[in-house]
Description:
By secondary structure, the chain is an all-alpha fold. It has a single domain (6-187, 222-417), classed as Up-down Bundle (Growth Hormone, Chain: A), CATH 1.20.1250. It is built from 21 helices and no strands. It has helices at 6-26, 28-38, 43-59, 61-71, 73-90, 96-110, 113-124, 130-158, 161-182, 195-201, 210-214, 221-224, 228-244, 251-258, 263-269, 271-295, 298-320, 326-341, 343-354, 359-388, 392-411. Helix 17 (298-320) runs antiparallel to helix 18. The model has no long low-confidence stretch (mean pLDDT 84).
Amino acid sequence: MRPSLTRYIILAGLCMAAMLAYITRNAISPAESTIRADLNLTKEQSGLMMSFFFWSYALCQIPSASVAQRIGMRRALPLCGLLWSLASAGMAAGSFVVMLLMRLGMGVGQAGLVPVGLNILSRWFPRGRQGSASGSFGACMSVGGVIAAPLSAWLVVTCGWRWMFVLYAIPGVLWAVWFQRWLREHPAEHPRVNPAELQLIHPGFRAEDSAVATTPDALPWRLLFSRPAMWCICAQQFCRAAGYIFFSTWFSTYLQEARGVKIVASGWLGMLPLLADVAGSLLGGMLSDAVLHRTGNQRLARQGLTIIAMLLCAGLVVVAGFSANALAAVLIISAGMFCAAIGNPCASATVMSMSGQHVAMVGGAMNMCGNFGAALFPLVVPLLLRATGSWNAVLLSYGALYIAAAAFWWLLKTEGDMFARSPQ
C-alpha cells in the first residue's frame, strides 16, 4: 500500500496561512510614506505603528501555544486567522490611535501561527522530513511578503490604502473556515490518512497512543526558561528576527530615501530580498535534511549549516552599503537574505527535535523572543538615522545582528530532548 498524501494538504494549508498572514502584516511597509503623509505623522509615529504589531505578537506567543494546547490546534489556528483578518479590515478606519489598536489585534491573532504551525508539522511529518516541511512553511511567509510589496504599492496608487486593508481581510476568513474542517489533531484521527502514511509519519504507532500524543503534559514556565539550550534558541531568534524585519518595515523607505527609488519601483525591488528568502528557506530545509540523512549528525545538519549561512549574510549586507548602484545594492542584500534564510528551517527543525511533547511552547518562546527583536529594530532605525544621518549605519547594525546570531548557534547544544536533561 502506498502512503496517502494527506500530510501535504495539511502543509499546503499551513503555507496558505503563512502567506496570508505575511501579506496583511507587511502591507503597511509600501504604504508607510503615503499613510504618514495622509495622517500627518512623523517617522517616529510610523515606527511606533509598525512596532506595535510585534509587541502583541511577541507577548502572545506562549499564551497562544497554551490556549492551543487546551482547545486543540484545529480550533486555535482558524480562530487566529479570523482575528488577524478582522484586524486588517479595521485598519481602514484610519486614525492613528485606531490603527495602533488594530496593529495590536493583528499581532494577537498572528501570534499562534508559528507555535501552532510547528506543532502541527511535528505531528504530521517524520523527523527526517521536518526540515523540508518547515522550510516550505517559512518560505511561504516570505511569499506573502513578496506578494505584499508590489501588490500593496499598486493598491495604494489605484484604490487607496484604506481599501487595501479591507481587501486583504477576505481571504483569511475563507481560509479559516476551510482549514477548521480539514485539520485533525493527529494523523491517526484523519479519515484520509491510510495505515501506510500513518506508519511513515509515526513508525510503530498504535491507536491507543493517539490520546497521549495529542494531550501533552503541562510545562511550567520556570522549566521552559531554565535550559541553557532554550537561552541560545531564543537569543539567536532575537537577532535573526530583528534583522529580517527591516525588509517588512523600513526597506521601501530606505530605497526611496537613500537610493532615490520611486514608490512603485521600491515595491518591486522590495520583492527581491523576500524572493531570496523564499529560495533560501526551501533550499535550507532540503539541504539540512539531506545532510542529516547522509551523516546522521544533527549538530552538523542544523547548527553548522546555519553558522556558515549567518556569517555570509552579515558580510554581504555590509558590502551592499558601499555599492553606488541601487540595483546592485539590492542584489547583494538579496544574496545575504538567501544565506540568512537557510537558518529558518534549521531553527524550526531544531525546536521540533529538542522539545519532546512541548513543541508549541518552545516554538512560542522562540518566536516571542524573536519578535521582541522585531519590535525594537523599527524603533532603532530612526534613532540611527538621526545620530548618523546615514542609512549605512542601519546596514552595519543589520550585519552585526547576524554575527551575534552565529555566535549563539555556536553555543547551542542540539542533541536530544532538552527537557530530559537537568539544567546545567
